[in-house]
Amino acid sequence: IMFTETGMLGAYQAAERLRSKIAETSFRVKDTSLSITVSMGLACLEVMDDRSISVNDLIEEADKALYAAKEDGRNCIHTNCQGFPVGLTTGQLREFVKTQANHKSH
């Protein structure tokens, strides 16, 4: 999913809503109830300095973040964005997002 006109904070919030909704939803397949989770990697152009950026560069950065999320135990979100902590649990990252949102509203 590509978010245009959206900073990393807004992209993270949208991704977290999607991750959370998927995790809490049960899927029925015949007589079996299945639960699934999703890991996500987010990349932002803000991190990539002033160099010329291609779509492939952005996908590569998101892919690196995705693999970091998978290595971290899955069902989480990682990002390449500077100033946005990497390696936190989803709960810790959620707290970080709340703190950042509170700072912006004051």
Helix-strand topology string:
HEEEHEH
Question: How confident overall, as mean pLDDT?
Answer: 80
| Percentage beta strand | 5-15%
The neighbouring-strand order within the major sheet is: 1-2
Q: What is the CA–CA distance across the termini? A: 30 Å
Structural class: alpha+beta
Net shape: globular
CA gyration radius, whole angstroms: 15 Å
Count the E strands.
Answer: 4
Number of helices: 3
Which range best describes the helical content: under 10%, 10-25%, 25-40%, 40-55%, 55-70% or over 70%?
Answer: 40-55%
Low-pLDDT segments: none
Main beta sheet: strand number and arrangement?
2 strands, antiparallel
Features:
single chain, 106 residues, 13% strand
Describe the fold and architecture.
The structure is a single chain. The protein is α+β, with helices and mostly antiparallel strands. 47% of the residues lie in helices and 13% in strands. It has three helices and four strands. The protein has helices at residues 8-24, 55-71, 90-105; strands at 26-29, 32-35, 40-42, 77-79. Helix 1 packs across helix 3 (90-105). The longest helix is centred in the N-terminal third of the chain and has 17 residues, at 8-24. The chain is globular, with a radius of gyration of 15 Å.
